[in-house]
Predict the 3D structure of the following.
Amino acid sequence: MGASHTACTLLVVIGKRFMDAGFHDVLVESGIVGPSAVTAVLLGKHYNRTVRCHKILLEALFRLRWIVFEKWETEEQLQHITSLDDKGDILQALHELRTPQSTESLTNLLHLPAFNYLETAFF
């Protein structure tokens, strides 16, 4: 089996797994896919649409995870850090990640120790 068939199989497995978990309803009610096409998308019959839907869902779930992570980080985890400088650096990195960045400032942000801490905690 080639890479394309393997990818299609994975998309079908994910679609079937989460079809009854609300993935079907999310796709229809958000307007990403019409009600008549959603079953075909979840069964991998329309490859491009299926990939697009999975990418959109992944992005939405990561955004929700990030919101919860920010709240958890500021309320819970920062209590365990004793240095005020470290706390300030981490809060500054969280703030800068929320705002649009130029390529240079984003590269600088990614090399900060505070970002490494956030990356480790998030993943």
Summary: DSSP finds six helices and no strands in the chain. The first helix runs from residue 3 to 29. The chain has a mean pLDDT of 82.
